[in-house]
Amino acid sequence: MKTFLRLKQFYWPYQKYFLGSILFLFFVTAITVVYPIILKFTIDDVILSGEFHLVPYVALGFVGIMVIKGIATYYHQFFGDLFGIKTVYELRNALYKKLQYLPFRYYDNAKTGDLMSRLTADVEGFRFFLSFGFAQALNLVLLVGLSLGIMLYFSVPLALLTLAAMPFLIVVVYRFDKEVHPAFKGIRKSFARLTTKVQENISGMNTVKSLSREDYEINKFVDNNGDYKDNYIQTSNIWAKYFPLMELIGHFCVVMLLGFGGFMVINNNLEPGELVAFFSLVWYIIGPLMNLGFIINTFSQSKASGERLVEILDEIEDIKDSDGAINVERLKGHVQFKEVFHSYNGEEGMVLKNVSFDAPVGKVIGLIGATGAGKTTITQLISRFYEADKGEILIDGKNINEYSIQALRKNIGSVLQESFLFSCSIRDNISYGYPDATMEQIQDAARRADAHEFIMELPDGYDTILGERGMGLSGGQKQRIAIARSILIDPSILIFDDATSAVDMETEAKIQAAFQEVMKGRTTFIIAHRISSLMHADEILVLEDGEVRERGNHEELLANQLGIYRRIYNIQFKDHQTITEAESKKVSI
Ligand SMILES: Nc1ncnc2c1ncn2[C@@H]1O[C@H](COP(=O)(O)OP(=O)(O)OP(=O)(O)O)[C@@H](O)[C@H]1O
């Protein structure tokens, strides 16, 4: 019940559809139980009493009642559907919104396929219960209640006989629910694993094919698919075990009814029409009770689904605006780190240790160091993707927590090693961060990113539709679109995180030239492994194990013959020298 209470805010605003559906359900149920009464009347008061002239009227009345039942059924289902559909519309929106604001920490461990299945299959599971399951449960209570009432009215002893089997049925149903609920949870989890597998496989198809791991992937999928199948079989086993038992109890009731009821008719303690009516009424009890398995099934599924939805909704958004957060339009871009420490998973794993630096407005800061040294972490802290454990990060003299997250991030443009382009036009990709940009502004950003020329050579120019992964464009072209996208928001802080590592030297030179143009007047952080990418920086921070080991400009750092920077330079310079020598040998041959 906790799950349903937690999700109340989504379905309660649509209570009018729910109440409408329930109202018509009352009609449907009432008309349903009128049917055996008409039957009793037809047999006892028309046929056995010889009043045959009444038959056409009874038949007409019966047809009329059935028409009303049809109309009531239509509205009951229609309102029930509306209730479910409108609720999950709100719920899906809320879940999606929540996903947009969940911190990066959440996505570090989240699986795309699992989230997809929550937003689709689980939301549907919940809707199904709202639209049908609940009404079925209510229908059960109403139909059983009314039928029992009428039966008690006709004959108390016979009605009690029917009631006698109820405790057994309740025990069976209780045990069924106990077993089937975890089984359904298992199915949902297994389905999420299956979709995760498919999603990861499609996203990583390049790696799969290049390492010829198709067979391995197929086997893994077969395992996941097998697990899903086994989960379903296990659930079917539970179902198969309990359903016949429920049915058996139901049929036992009918046998008792026919035996004892027939005996009462023979002894003139019950009218023949009443026995026939009883026979119909008892099926109105047995039928819904046999359906109880399905209702519990729907309820269990929706409870399991609802729990998985609540898990997302209750996830903590720990990175959010502080009270009175400043909504500044434009930051100047003066970035300062003061004794910053950071870990992703507790004290032991400090990935930044006592990092301090000052990046005045318009200056270029280079970050270099081995992989895992903490370069990206520094830039992620500036954007508040994660929060530092200790120390202070200031922009324009104020702690970054004092700015609203939106204001802060709107002033930071990032180009990553692999830029993500959406499956829409190039124009929309460039204007993603500034949807109101005019075509002139978009083209201007593209020109400054050295992207305009190649875009114009594409058949549809700026209207060219890109695939999910920027299909049809080279790595360098994708990067230049990403640069255009970052500069269109006119950020005061620019972050280039390994932005040229995936492209060839010539493209790198082109992108670097584009960088020079867009860096003017902005505080820029360049993360790179190649010294050539950041040698012109005003200050270069050399990181090792999360600590700044050396700092200074290119010349100053080179002067330290035993320094890390000098060592990196020597290795890269040697490579360069070897290549140049080989090239010149080739030419002389
Ligand atoms: N989201 C995360 N959760 C847990 N640990 C992380 C996370 N991101 C990075 N780390 C760890 O923090 C350390 C620093 O990572 P970071 O990405 O800052 O290094 P980097 O210097 O940018 O490396 P690279 O040059 O490979 O990009 C690494 O040990 C890394 O494993």
UniProtKB/TrEMBL annotation:
It is a multi-pass membrane protein. SMART domains: AAA. It comes from the Bacteria. It is found in: Cell membrane. Residues 335-570 form the ABC transporter domain. GO terms for molecular function: ABC-type oligopeptide transporter activity; ATP binding; ATP hydrolysis activity. It holds the Pfam family ABC_tran. Keywords: ATP-binding, Cell membrane, Membrane, Nucleotide-binding, Transmembrane, Transmembrane helix, Transport. The keyword Nucleotide-binding applies. Residues 19-301 form the ABC transmembrane type-1 domain. GO terms for cellular component: plasma membrane. The chain crosses the membrane at residues 21-43, 55-75, 128-152, 158-176, 248-266, 278-299. This is ABC transporter ATP-binding protein. It comes from Anaerobacillus isosaccharinicus.
